[in-house]
Design goal:
The protein has about 325 residues and is an alpha/beta fold. It has helices at about 1-20, 45-55, 75-85, 105-110, 140-155, 175-190, 205-220, 235-245, 265-270, 285-295, 320-325, and strands at about 35-40, 65-70, 90-95, 115-120, 135, 160-170, 195-200, 225-230, 255-260, 275-280, 305, 310-315. The protein contains eleven helices and twelve strands. It is elongated. Bound molecules: beta-D-fucofuranose (GYE).
Length: about 325
């Protein structure tokens, strides 16, 4: 009897000693998956919607701890952020690379640390295959092809030259490279297409307004413009502002502004007839990123690329209800 009591006391002592040394238990469920996410910045409506979508997908309720870094448009800030995520031993890195080059070193470091990198939105150099687990985003060359096919149809009977101003996105970004390549190839094959100017709009309204204003002020007197090919909605807003200030007529009988993204504001501008064509580019990549990561958690190897299905919009296709129903 005495012996039993002694044993019971000893067991009790041991138990309380163990409990004292242990971290308080998580209330329930498996541990959170830590995501280090490096976002480019907030240069456009598209980008803002993209960040929101990521933040909504990677919540604690959904089982994640999200470390979100905004690089304010600088690649070096993105590289620093990724290095920090590696030091913090996150479970996954989600990277929106501002441009395609310059990633080899830091992606190697992530690989050496055994941390999978999911590229979202844009891509890195083709030779870096193997240094990232998957890429989710859009096929920007295909988007550009949608735009130039529409242009080829609209101007197929044009008698004189088709004069084009091209506003490019951030140089060296996949979105710029793909959308530019489609236009340049179309200029090559359409003998009467005439590129008046190629300008750097950096995907922002402010920069585009400036470069467009200077360009218009330096055109020869009487120079006609048929198309302004902008590589995103915000560039289109800047270009429209500059064109309208200088009295250009937009739409059916005037300058055809072309745009990419199809954000609500872009579509509204299209419905009003200021943008002639908008090519959709889906920023809502959060749920897909989470699905890819969930698959990897179950041990399923991801595909190398996941591309969104996208379409075009022209003014006749748009209604206020449709615009309101859009998620971005
Ligand atoms: O079109 C633009 C943004 O990479 C798809 O970047 C993205 C582009 C998008 O700033 O609005």
């Amino acid at each position: 009897m005495k012996r039993n009591l002694l044993w019971a006391l000893l067991a009790l002592l041991l138990l309380s000693a163990c409990a004292a040394g242990r971290e308080p238990e998580e209330p329930s469920g498996p541990p959170l998956i830590t995501i280090g996410l490096s976002q480019i910045g907030a240069e456009s409506d598209w980008r803002v919607a993209n960040s929101e979508s990521m933040k909504e997908a990677f919540t604690e309720e959904n089982g994640y701890r999200l470390l979100f870094d905004d690089a304010r448009q600088m690649q070096e800030n993105q590289i620093t952020a990724v290095r920090k995520f590696i030091q913090q031993r996150v479970d996954y890195i989600v990277l929106m690379p501002i441009s395609e080059t310059g990633w080899e070193g830091v992606l190697q470091e992530a690989r050496n640390a055994g941390i999978p990198v999911i590229l979202a939105d844009r891509m890195v150099d083709a030779e870096l295959e193997g240094l990232y687990a998957a890429h989710i985003g859009s096929d920007f060359r295909a988007e550009g092809e949608l735009a130039v096919r529409w242009m080829e149809e609209r101007y197929q009977d044009a008698e004189g030259p088709v004069n084009i101003i091209h506003i490019q996105g951030t140089y060296g970004s996949t979105a710029q490279l793909g959308r530019t390549a489609a236009l340049e190839a179309a200029v090559e094959r359409n003998g009467n297409w005439n590129l008046l100017a190629q300008l750097d709009g950096d995907f922002t309204q402010a920069k585009t307004y400036e470069v467009m204003r200077d360009c218009l002020d330096n055109l020869p007197v009487g120079q006609g413009i048929d198309i302004v090919y902008c590589e995103n909605d915000n560039e289109a807003f800047g270009a429209i502002q500059a064109l309208e200030e200088r009295g250009y007529v937009l739409g059916e009988d005037g300058v055809a502004v072309i745009s990419f993204d199809a954000t609500r504001n872009g579509l509204r501008s299209c419905m009003e007839g200021k943008i002639a064509l908008v090519v959709e580019c889906d920023p809502l990549l959060g749920p897909l990123a989470a699905r890819v990561i969930q698959g990897m958690e179950r041990g399923e190897p991801p595909e190398e690329h996941y591309y969104a299905q996208e379409r075009i919009f022209t003014p006749d296709m748009l209604t206020e209800e449709l615009i309101q129903a859009r998620e971005y």
